[in-house]
Amino acid sequence: MDFVLALHSHLPYVLHHGRWPHGSDWLCEAALDTYLPLLEKLQELAAQGTPAPATIGFTPVLANQLASPDFVKELEAFFDQRQAMCAEAPANLAATGDSRLTPLVEFWQSRQRQLRDLFHAIDCDIVGAFRRLQDAGHLEIISSAATHGYLPLLARDESIRLQLAVGRNEHRRLFGREPVGCWLPECAYRPRRDRRPGIEEQLAAAGFRYFFTDSHLAQAGDPLGSYGEIPLGAERFDAERPEAPSKPAGEAVRSPYRAYRVTPAGAKRSVAALVRDPRSSMQVWSRHHGYPGDEWYLEFHKIRWPGGLKLWRVTGPNVDLGGKHPYEPAVALGRAADHARHFAHLLATIATGPDGARAAGANRAGVVVAPFDTELFGHWWFEGVDFLAGVYRELRHHDGVRPTTASRHLADHPPRAAVRLAEGSWGVNGDHSMWLNDRTAWTWPRLGALENAFWNAAPAALAVAAARPVLAQAARELLLAQASDWQFMISTGAVPDYAERRFNLHCGDAERLVAALASASSGGGEGGAALAAELERRDALFPNVLETVAEVLAG
Question: What pLDDT shows up at residue 266?
C-alpha cells in the first residue's frame, strides 16, 4: 500500500506591509520555524539514502515572497533580532530568579546559528533549494491558486481561471516544470452549477491532473459512510470540526484508501482526487487526541517577555500557562522518535486492515493520503519536522507500506472508479461557512463588483500599450484581495481588524486602477500609470500576470 504525505505551504502576501506581528516577521518566522528545518531534514535524509518522497505544495504568493531579494534582507534582520534576544536573555533570567532556564537559551542560540548557516549554504534561496531536491527526484512540488483565493465563491469564472493559470505559470517560472497537482485552497470544491463549470473542470482546463479532497466531501458526493472519529476540519491547528452525520443505512460505501476520477462533464480527460485519510490525519493533527499534545513537547503559547523565547513544555492537557515545566529538548526528541515509530506502525496496520486490504486488493491501488499545512510542523508543533523524518526512517522497516509522491502513485495505479464530490471545504463544519458568514458576508458583494469591473475593462485595456501596466497592477491587487486568508482571519476573530484593513486596501487600490482604465485610449491617464508604478513597488509579485490575463481572455 502506498503512503502519500502532502504538505501545503501558504502565507498571504506580507512583504512591504509592515513587520510585526503580521508583516514580514510572520513570513520570517515561518521560514525559521518550518521551511528551513524541513529543508534541513530532507537534505539529511537524501544524503543518508533514506527515501522521503513528500508531495510539497507552495502557493505562488508564498513562493514569490520567498524568492524576493527583499525577503532575504528581512530574514537576515530577523536572525539578528533573534541573536540579540538570546544574548540578552541570561541577564534577564538571572534578574527574575529563572537562571535554571539559561541552558535553554544556549539551545536556541545553537539552533538559530545552525539554521542561519543553512540559509547561507543554499545561497539564501529557499525556493531554489527545494527545486534542487525536486530535480534530484527526492520529492514532488505542486502548485495552487495564485493567492489562495476561495474558488467556489468567486463571482466570475474568469477569476477562477486567472487564479489557476497564474498558479501554473508561476510554478513553471519558479520551479522549472509544469505542475501536475494542485492544492485547492481550503480544499474548497463546488460542482457544476447552471452554466458555471465545476472546479474540477477548471482544474482540467488549466492542465492539472489531480487534487486533494477531504473525506466528507467524497462521503456526501457518493457516500463514504462514517469513519468514527472525524479529523480536524479547519486547516489551522487550533480549530476542530464536529463529527459529520452518519449516512443512512444501505447507502454505498467507498474507501478513502484509493484515488478516484472526477470527470468534467463532456470532457475526455478526468482529474484525479486523492482523499484525506481520517485515521492517520487525526493522529498527527489533533492537539487533543494526537501527538502534538504530548506533555514533553514545546509549549507553543507560553512565551517569555521581553525576548520572546519559548522555554517551557506542554506539561499536561489541563495545565495552565503558569504551571508549565521547563522544556527538555533531548526528551522531546525521543518522544518524536517514539511517535514516528507508532505512526509507521499505524500505517502498516491500515494497510493490512479490512479497508486498506480491500483497497489494495484492487490492482494493489491502495493509498493512505495524509495532507497537512506545512506550518504545523516546526511552527505549531516544534518537534514535528523531526517526527516526519523519523516516519520516513521507520518506513524502511515496513515492507507493506511504500512512501511515494502523489504523481507516482497515480502513474502506477491510474484511478478507475469515479466519484461525485459534494460542495464544501475542509473548514469548520465542512462547508463554506468559515469564509461566508455574518461577519464576512459584506466582503463578497464588494469583491464581486470588483471582479465584474476588472473583466469588463480588461479587453480594451489590453489592446492599448500604455494601459497595460495599469491593467497588470490591477490584476495583482484583485488577486491579493481574493485571498481566502482575509475572511478566515475575520471569522476566527484573532486579528479581524488587520484582515479587514488588508482586504479593503487591495480592493480600494484595484478599484482605483480599474477606474483609471476607463480612459484606456489614453493609457489610463498619467495618474493611473503613476499609481500603478507606486503600487507595484509595494506589491511586486507575479511578473508575468499580464500575459496570463491575456491567456484567460483568449479563452
Answer: 66
Taking Cα atoms as reference points, which of 423, 420, 510 lies closest to residue 147?
Answer: 510
Residues 472 and 464: their CA atoms lie apart, in Å, by 12
Q: Give the Cα separation of 306 and 303 in Å (integer).
A: 9
| 141 DSSP β-pair partners | 56
Cell numbers at residue 252, please? 454505498
Rounded CA-CA distance 190/425 in Å is 9
Type of residue at 368: V
Q: Mind listing the pLDDT tens digit for each residue in 314-365?
A: 999 889 999 999 999 999 999 999 999 999 999 999 998 876 666 555 446 7
- The C-alpha cell of 165 is what? 493559470
Cβ atoms 535, 477 nearer than 8 A: yes
* DSSP bridge pairs for 271: 262
Summarised one tens digit per residue, pLDDT across range 45-70 is 999 999 999 999 999 999 999 999 99
- Ordered domains of the chain (ranges, CATH): 2-430 (3.20.110.10), 443-554 (1.20.1430.10)
Q: Which amino acid is at 377?
A: F
Closest C-alpha to 256, from 144, 399, 182, 354 = 354
C-alpha cell read off for 459: 479587453
Tell which residue, 447, 500, 523, has the closest CA to residue 478.
447
DSSP 239: -
CB neighbour list of residue 261: distance below 8 Å, 6 or more residues apart: 270, 271, 272, 273, 415, 416, 417, 418, 419
Task: Tell me: pLDDT of 150 over 70.
Answer: yes
Q: What is the mean pLDDT of the chain?
A: 90
Strand-strand pairing, 271-275 and 260-262: antiparallel
Minimal CA–CA distance to 134: which of 77, 162, 175? 175
The residue type at 152: P
Residue type present at position 499? A
- Alpha helices in 413-544, H assignment, sequence order: 443-462, 468-481, 484-492, 496-516, 525-538
What pLDDT, on a 0 to 100 scale, did the predictor assign at position 248?
41
Q: Which residues are catalytic?
A: 186, 373
Q: Report the greatest alpha carbon distance in the chain.
A: 73
Q: How far apart are CA 392 and CA 548, in angstroms?
A: 39
Q: What are phi and psi of 480, to 5 degrees?
A: -65, -35
Instruction: For residues 138 and 71, give the distance between their C-alpha atoms in angstroms, rounded to a whole number.
Output: 26
Are 286 and 299 spatial neighbours (Cβ–Cβ below 8 Å)? no
Query: Is omega for the bond preceding 543 within 30 degrees of 0, making it cis?
Result: no
Please state, as a whole number, how many other Cβ atoms lie within 10 Å of the Cβ of residue 532.
Answer: 25
Could you tell me which residues come within 8 angstroms of residue 152 by beta carbon, excluding any fewer than 6 positions away? 188, 189, 190, 199, 423, 425, 432
- Residue 239: pLDDT over 50: no
Quickly list DSSP for 3-46. Answer: EEEEEEE-----TTS-STTTSHHHHHHHIIIIIHHHHHHHHHHH
Percent of the chain exceeding pLDDT 70 equals 90
Q: What is the pLDDT of residue 297?
A: 97
DSSP 312: B
